[in-house]
Amino acid sequence: TTKFASAFDIPVKFIEKNVKLRGRLHHVTEKGLEVEHIPISIPFLASLQRKWQSKGLLLVRLAGVELAPSGMAWLQQELKPKQTLWFQLLGREDLALECLVLVNKGRFLSTCLNEEILRQGLGRTARIEGLHHESRLYWKLHRRLLRAELKASRKNKGIWKEESYSERIRDRISNNRVVQTLKQFVSWLRSS
Fold this sequence. Notes:
Strand order of the largest sheet: 1-2-3-6-5
Strand content: 15-25%
Structural class: alpha+beta
Number of helices: 7
Number of domains: 1
Shape: elongated
Number of strands: 8
Order of helices and strands: HEEHEEHEEEHEHHH
Oligomer: single chain
CATH architecture: Beta Barrel
């Protein structure tokens, strides 16, 4: 029932047990997602709870994901301010929380943003900070993230997109010095 206003407010037991918390998105920044924690409310005490709750935003990072610049743009486009999301605590590093972030897609479906970004080819898999890499959970999550990244690389999506043979030939021809000199000569002829 407590509203967490900073990463240090969250008890260590919550992080060790990988508790899922609910929050409301405020901003997508380069450092991560700024999320307002939504505590469990008790029906008759909800109005009193709001008066005692502190205000502040939690900095939530996508665990195991190294975002590409296009990934940041995709997040800003996909996520809307005041959107409700769930984040599963995996670790805490200074003021940031390393989390799996889940977004509801319809009534019964939810999407893990960490996996979706990798599936779209908008980032790379990274070490999951905060989890011991001998733990079963670490390897389970890391395997899921690697599978998502592999799908993107097989489908040539995002950062894994390769130029076709014709595009490579066209680039080589247009960057050739002789061709560039001819273009300059033709533009000089047109201007005179």
